[in-house]
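Quick entry between incubations.
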Amino acid sequence: MLARALARLTRPRVTEDSVALRVAVALAVLASMVGVVAQDIVSGPVAFLVLVLTPLGFLFSWHSRSSRNVVVKVLLAAGAVMALANFLQRVGSATSVEAARAPLAEIFLYVQMLHSFDLPRRRDLHFSLASSITLIAMGGSLALSGDYVIFFIPWGLAALFAMHLSYASEVAMKSGARADVASRRMSFAGVRLAAAGTAVVVLATAAVFMLLPRTGGSKLTASFQLPNLGKLLPVGSGIVNPSFPSLFGSPDGPFGVGRGGYYGFADQVNLRIRARLSDEIVLRVRAPQAQFWRGAVFDVYSNSRWTQSNDRKRALTGVHAFIPSGPANAINLKGSSEMLQTFYVEQPQPNLIFAAYRPEEVWFPIGGVRVNDRMSLQAPVVLPPGTVYSVLSRVPTPTSAELAVTTDGTPPALASRYTQLPPELSARVRHLAAELASPHPTIIGKVDAIQRWLQRNTRYKIDIPPQPRGTDAVDHFLFEGRRGYCEQIATAMTVMLRSQGVPARFATGYDSGHRDLLSGYFEVKQSDAHSWVEVYFPGTGWVEFDPTHAVPLASRGAEVPAAAALKKLAKFIGALLPTGVLKEIGGAVAGTIGAVLRVITSSASSLAGGLVVFAGLVWAIRSGTPRLRRAFRRRRLLSPIRENEPASLVVGAFRKIQSAGAGSGLSRPPNLTPKEYGHLLKGGTNADHDDIDVVVGILERQIYGGEAIHEQEALVARDAAMRVARLLVEQASDERDRALVSSRV
Amino acid sequence: MKLRPKRRMVTLPLGGAILLLVATNAQAGWLYVVSAAMFGIAIAGALIPAFHLRGLRFERVLPQTATVGDALRVKLRVVAGRGWSRGPLFGRDLLTGSEVVVDRVSSRSQHWIHCDFVPQRRGWFSGGQVEMTTGAPFGVLEATRRWDVSSELLVHPRWVQVGNLPLLESASAPDEDMHDRSRRGEGLEVFGLRDYRRGDSIRHIHWRSSARGGGLLVREYEQPPSSRLVIFIDSHEDIGTGTDSTFEVSISVAASIAMYGLDVGHPIEMVCDAAPERRLVEPGKMAALDWLAKLDGRKGRALSDLVMSAELHTLRRSTAVLIFPLTAATGRDVGSAVSALQEAGARVLAIAVSPRAGSADRTSLGANDVADLLTRLRQGRAIVYRIDPSRELTECLREPLHV
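Done. Structure below.
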């Protein structure tokens, strides 16, 4: 075996001499490494070590590619063993799969770094490229946002160029030519060729990305992080919202406008309060589908406030806890599906554990989660940025038939609790509700009727004036203002349903947010804070309804009619498509149309900015492309003549002059002999006449005189040609500069 | 167009599928992107190569004639139509068998490919396809396409400079051959005088005799002694294959002798059944080589029949060269062919071609039979040469075998 190993080591091998290929692979590897390092999963010293040593490794392996490097191989093997030992030690102490990600990332980085010191052959470079896929995928699995694109695009470009150069090198080798012939001549045309291929790859990738099936994941929870645990103070049994002053939430608080926080995340919701919410991302949610991320649920409405009648909470034990639901929150298991969500807290959040209804299991880093009888989860601390938790929910997915039931069968206790209304509620509210709901015997009929009325008769408006003193929020909204936002709309629907004997409750939380196309995470902004209605259906349980979504905007002018029509069309097409892949396509198409429309509508407001960006891009392309071409041409013209045979060298020298002449606008017409062309150049440029004569003279002796040119003389021709080329290139550059100056003058 | 997937065609989708599995389990959006990118590269890499081979035209530039063993520079012109820049392309010229690489051809441009070609056999090289293969840009799948590129190259047989051959020269002809029966002709010696006839050249009028006789008399000249060289190539049997076969060696021998004959001023004639025109009379050098280049492998008549079919009466005072393989059939036959030629008044050079060692078969003559045959031929006044493939042809033709 030892003999075999030695024989393998001493076997002659074909080295990869292409510098361009090595550079492309190195760039791909470095981009992937930086992508992982940027996710803060490895320590600073490790990041520094791998990012500094890897380029050095590539440099070393280029210089020593022809050597056997036995000592280096032994050292690298020892380094790999040490890295493995370190990995095994660290992974042994990891408590979960997630906790093993850091050592896993480290060993990948170490292996990549060590391997970069020994890359003599093309297949070694292929291995490096393949490893970079693993790294970029690992970085991608850790990335929470679309910003990861800044690592992915350079990696993708470098990897595609590396594949192109690798194939060019392979073809060159196949013909017995030197491996670096093709790739060394990486001209502008070559870049364009690879760029065209890259454009097709981008299109194909986009198409595949849209078609890839997105099914639910396994119960893989995220790594639990809760930074600065020592500074966190436990909170009491109530809801504590750090971004919303308790003053506004107090029963006797003033009317007014709060800034920076949502007042729905509190023990009570005062409908007199107005809040302004920012577009800052507060949560990122990894979930297979959009859902309301439910926070608090309220059952008592009085005096324009929502409060909670029974605030007793049950404490759950352990980091991973099962959540008891109780009969009041029973759901039809057949008409429901499991959904795992992982929440990444980006901005300080109240001590609410947001999750889709109905939560069944929770993984919270420090445990101590409490749950009330409305299945609202509370943490023992306010959630600082960096907190990660997961919740497994069973989401009701009832059919139309299951919703077409009456209130018969509702447990009496539940019915009395969730149909509570304040005695001072105006008669006209009850009357309106009765008028809308009584023709419909089923609950869903009543819900639809009320939603339709709200859609037709009210308008969504975020900046409504404060509610006048002495008025009820619902009465004022339905009969006076008819302008409001989710709190007013959801409260009105809840109250009207309750007045018709339908159990309903008021829930606050976050809308699903916008799903980032690339990261796949839902990005929840502060302005996604929302409220909606939960309605009880006997046999099915609590089902969420969002009347606000059906209510049109108060300022219709902001809606682009064509955009609205296209949106409807996209939704219609999406609804027609069957389930499965086609539905995914429909969803993707609808999503794309929606995204395009969003861009159009938003750019309408910032048209000037868009125009500036567009003009800048046009300018950059127009001025950059010729410069780039000139740079490539200059590089090509000044590149050395790489012929070895004297005869080829002389021909190459004349060709060099010809190319340089063409670059100066003096192309050689086919009817001109070399001597005539030499005269043309002498007359039209400032090139040294003697140099031109030398090259032309030697060439003519070779081709017409049949002389075998001596190597020394061929070298003289080569040097003369290079001098002519340099002069012509500089002359062309000077003329361009003069033209530029004169045009500016 | 043929498509051949490379290893990447499997590894990329496989990697994409694995990442998709991980992405599904981890619900990590970027893994979907990386997975889609791997599928995307595989799809693009499988689609693009076919487009690289579209809109290409080829033209081959090569000399019309060459000789076996010549180093030729064949130029292939690739013209690309609209669309992509193409390349790298790996190609094979199926006419010349050479392999070439084209780094890239820009759209609407042309590219010259130079390849070296050393023809190893004589004959017609016509038609010839060009095959191009590319997996550009990513080497995922290789597409191969062939183009018909019409070209014609006639490769002459290999021939050598022969130092000296005992051809029958007019001056060196033996008396019995030269002066037994003079005939009128176009020679230099005066044959006699006769009366002037209309149309006779005034330069031929013998003024002195005309003055004496009263009427115009003109000189008649003798027919010059023939120094014709007639080469018979036996194609009745062939031993061996390819360029080493006795027939191919015979053709090289014939070419060398023909070139020698033409160099020293003999009109030549060549006869062989393995040719569309079985007889070639008084060709120039190129015509002789062309005719030899076009000889095919068809089986001809026995050597004696070939000789008898010639106009034997025209061979008087000629040198007849018989080139034949040393086979049993020829061994039986060659004696009568030599006799017939000698009876017709020709000097006979018998050139026996031995098969290459290892290619002898049951039709070959044994060593003793060969010795007997050559002895008989020499005893019959034929000048005998033996071509041994293991020796240089020049050397074999330097000296005849001695009795």
